[in-house]
Amino acid sequence: MIVLVEKVRLSIGTAVQLGLESGTRDPDFTTAFLMTFREGKCEANCAFCPQARESSASSDRLSRISWPEFNLNAVLENWLPPGQFRRICVQTICYPEVVSDVIDIVGRLRQISKLPISVAIHPISKTKFQQLKDVGVSNVGIALDACTADLFDRIKGSQRDAHYRWETHLEAIDNALTVFGKGNVTTHLIVGLGETEFEAAKFIVEMYQKEVSVGLFAFTSIKGTSLENQPTPELESYRRIQAIRYLVSKGQLDVDQIKEQSNGFITLKIDKALLREALSSGEAFRVTGCKGCNRPFYNERPRGPMYNFPRDLTQEEIQQAIEETKLVG
Ligand code: SF4
Q1: What tens digit of pLDDT does each residue of 16-57 get?
Q2: For a substitution probing ligand 1, which of 11, 51, 95 has the most ligand atoms within 8 Å of its CB?
Q3: Cβ neighbours, 10 Å, residue 98
Q4: pLDDT digits (tens, 9 = 90+) for 131-160
C-alpha cells in the first residue's frame, strides 16, 4: 500500500521564501530545501548532528538551521513561480520508509516544477537509486562527512554504535555514479572533525578523480550533540582546503603538488602569482555543492566568520580570503 507523505520539514529560509513563515525574503536564496519528516530521530548517530539517535538537540534542527514542519500540500500550494529557485534539495534522515517517502515527495514536486532536484541520502541499493532517478531526481549526495576511514568510524560508524561503514558509503557512491552519471553525484566533507589538512586534501583529490564533487562544510558545534564542545576549524586552514578543492575541481592541481609541512599545514608547489590569479574570481570561497546551491548561513553565524559565501564576493573580500589561505605570501 502506498502511503502518501503528509508532512515535510522546510529549512526556515525556504519557509520564509514560500510565505509559510514570517520574515524578509532573500533575493540570494536560490535553493529550496526540504527534509523528510519523521516523529523522532534519525536511526543513525552521527556525532555532529542534532538529528542523531542519541542527540538531545531538538528534532527540528540540522546543522545550525531550524527546520519547522509543514503539510506537504501546503508547501506545494505555496510554491513560487519559475525563476525564484534554481534547485530543490531534499535532505533525508535515516529510517526504513525513507526511499518511498522521497519518491512520493519528488513525484509531487515534479508535477509543479521542472527544476533540478537533489537528494541527500544514506547508502541505498542500486535499484533504489534507479527508482529515485526514474521519479525525477537529478543529483544524489551521499555524505561521507569525514575524510578517512578511521575518522568516519569515530564520527558516524561503529564507534557511534551506528550501522554506517566507510566501505558501504564508498560503494554507494560508486553505485550512484553508475545510475546518475559522473558529475551528478556529490559528497560532503566537514572540515574540523579532527582530520589533518593533508588528509582532507587527499580525500578531495580522490573524490574528484571519481568525478564526485565535494561540498565543503565548516564544523559547527550544536548544543545537545556529542561534539557540542568541539571548536570550529581555523579560518586559515579552511581557506586552504577551499582553495585546494577549487583548484582540484578545475583540474589545476594534482596531489603531487600538495605538500604537508611538519606543523600539519599544507603548502602548494605552484607558482604564487599563478595561484593568486587562479583564485582571483573568489569562486573558491563560495558555497560548494550542487550547481545553483548557496545554503545561506548553513554553518556560518551571521556575525561571521564567513566560511562559505552564499553570493559573489567583493574585490576586497576576495583579496582577504586569498591572503587568509597563507598560500600566496
Ligand atoms: S544520517 Fe544524516 S540526519 Fe542522520 S544522524 Fe547522520 S547526519 Fe544526521
Answers
A1: 999 999 998 887 788 999 999 998 899 999 999 999 999 998
A2: 51
A3: 20
A4: 999 999 999 999 999 999 999 999 999 999
Closest atom of ligand 1 to 156 CA is: 6
Write the single-letter amino acid at 223.
Answer: K
Question: For the whole model, what pTM was predicted?
Answer: 0.93
Choose among 76, 99, 65: nearest CA to 7.
76
Question: Crossing angle, helix 315-325 and helix 235-249, to 10 degrees?
Answer: 100
Q: What number does the ligand 1 atom closest to the CA of 52 have? A: 5
- Ligand 1 pocket, residues with Cβ under 6 angstroms: 42, 44, 46, 49, 51-52, 93-94, 122
* Residue labelled with grid coordinates 530545501: 33
Reduced to 3 states, what is the DSSP secondary structure of residue 174?
helix
Sequence-ordered strand ranges (E) for the chain: 7-10, 31-36, 61-62, 65-66, 69-71, 87-91, 117-120, 139-141, 185-191, 213-218, 258-260, 266-268
CA of 298 to the centre of ligand 1 (A): 15
**Domains defined for the chain, CATH in brackets:** 7-325 (3.20.20.70)
